[in-house]
Write a structure and sequence with these properties.
Layout (H helix, E strand, L loop, with lengths): L6 E8 L3 E9 L3 E6 L6 H9 L6 E6 L13 E4 L10 H12 L4 H6 L15 H12 L6 E5 L7 H16 L3 E5 L3 H6 L2 E4 L5
Parallel strand pairs: 3-7, 3-8, 5-6, 6-7
Antiparallel strand pairs: 1-2, 1-4
Keywords: ATP-binding, Nucleotide-binding, Transport
Pfam families: ABC_tran
GO molecular function: ATP binding; ATP hydrolysis activity
Amino acid sequence: MADVDKLVIAGEIGRQTALEYIEYTFEPGVMYALSGRNGAGKSTLLLTLAGELEPVSGEVTFGGTPPGDVTNAGNIVRVSDPIFLPDLSLGEHIELMQRKTKLDLSDALTTWQLGELLPLPPAQLSSGQRQRAFLAIQLYLPAQVLLMDEPERYLDTHWQQCLTTELRNLASAGRIVVVATHSADMLAACDHRIVVGHHG
């Protein structure tokens, strides 16, 4: 892969003060795990990689430009907590996303077994069902970089295994997949593991 396909960080991450200096190159076709204790900086690193938080020093680039640059619009997706509009059913959320992105999410609905849930508003779904729905909507956006913060939350063992399989498939298709996780199974499924906060 050409260098322009890579996500590169060389700098200190943090909010007001630096937590850690990180120098790393994330390459297409690879699934990366971010591990570390709570508060170590995993979420801060994801925000920095997404361009939502500036590094304290140094830089982050994707395609040679900052991730928040207009040229990278849509190239990087950070998936965190499920967010739904309370007045819309799950099916209406899916329809809105399909119209906005021109994606056909029918395969995703089958994979995550959401068909029977489509008429329901998000408030009537369990936390696990909402997480499955959110993943079905977010995972398949045409982004080149997928950043995820503990996506296995609220999922039982079966759906955690499904998530791992889907992320492996996305990486195999050429995406850069970066997952902050505490799951031993998710860590084992990743190609590389980055321990955040091990200097602190």
